[in-house]
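Researcher: Quick test of sequence recovery. Tokens follow.
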């Protein structure tokens, strides 16, 4: 979460440097979070994020509009928590994660399908994921109260602890030079790798229980039907793309790409020429090729 907030602060600073007022864009910002399995910890995570964002925006940028303090966020249930072993268990995991997101105040929600550890979701799996959201929204009553766990000693303590640790991490990131420096030096990459290592180690040691993986295992697991994508879909898309390119005006395409290149090279706002290009059916690949030619490609530091 600290990395996400650090990135967002870098975007805010860039927007202010470009001449925008904080109240012009802050109310429109939104975040994307994942929800994992520990119900109360996840609720506290979302609550802490809302607290921290309001605090940072208020103290650093002094907005006049209270809506600038609001942290709006979308939540997706954690794909990394899904297991190929006993995949039906993922239905329960997804429901608990979705519940945590709702209790934490999410504005929108995506529920993963139970078979996504095996492949692309089937229609049946997608329908179950949708029904999970509908059951929570229509039957559980959890959407009728804002912040329903507020005042719980356990949740408030967890929220305070997460807030304290995230603020400390943000201070550390700023000391090293900010989010961009964190990417350039490999700090973010290394911290994520360390976290993944600790997770895997705790799983293999049994310190963390994952039902069906390191406890309550079964000798034989029934694998559900896996979606197989028809190769003709790809071939048809290639044909449609070629047809689209053949019907365009080459001069218009070249002019659009030239405007994008000019903006990229001069440091001007690239949004307007990109929108103009898209409206003239310039493809994403053609646009990114221009950026690649101007700015090169990012390579991780070793």
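Model:
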């Amino acid at each position: 979460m600290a990395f996400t907030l650090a990135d967002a602060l870098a975007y805010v600073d860039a927007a202010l440097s470009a001449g925008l007022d904080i109240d012009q864009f802050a109310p429109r910002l939104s975040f994307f979070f994942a929800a994992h399995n520990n119900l109360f910890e996840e609720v506290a995570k979302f609550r802490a994020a809302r607290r921290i964002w309001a605090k940072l925006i208020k103290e650093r940028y002094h907005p006049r509009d209270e809506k600038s303090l609001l942290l709006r966020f979308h939540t997706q249930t954690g794909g990394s928590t899904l297991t190929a072993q006993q995949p039906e268990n993922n239905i329960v995991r997804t429901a608990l994660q979705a519940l945590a997101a709702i209790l934490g105040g999410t504005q929108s929600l995506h529920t993963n399908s139970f078979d996504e550890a095996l492949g692309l979701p089937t229609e049946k799996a997608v329908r179950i994921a949708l029904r999970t959201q509908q059951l929570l929204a229509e039957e559980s009553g959890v959407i009728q109260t804002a912040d329903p766990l507020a005042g719980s000693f356990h949740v408030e303590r967890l929220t305070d602890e997460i807030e304290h640790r995230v603020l400390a991490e943000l201070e550390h990131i700023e000391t090293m030079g900010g989010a961009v420096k964190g990417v350039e030096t490999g700090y973010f990459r290394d911290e994520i790798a360390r976290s993944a290592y600790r997770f895997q180690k705790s799983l293999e040691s049994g310190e963390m229980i994952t039902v069906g993986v390191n406890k309550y295992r079964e000798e034989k697991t029934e694998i559900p039907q896996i979606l197989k994508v028809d190769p003709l879909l790809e071939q048809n898309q290639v044909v449609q793309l070629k047809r689209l390119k053949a019907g365009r005006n080459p001069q218009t395409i070249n002019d659009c790409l030239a405007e994008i290149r000019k903006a990229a090279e001069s440091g001007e706002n690239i949004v307007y020429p990109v929108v103009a290009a898209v409206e003239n059916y310039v493809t994403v690949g053609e646009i990114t090729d221009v950026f690649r030619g101007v700015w090169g490609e990012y390579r991780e530091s070793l």
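The chain has a mean pLDDT of 94.
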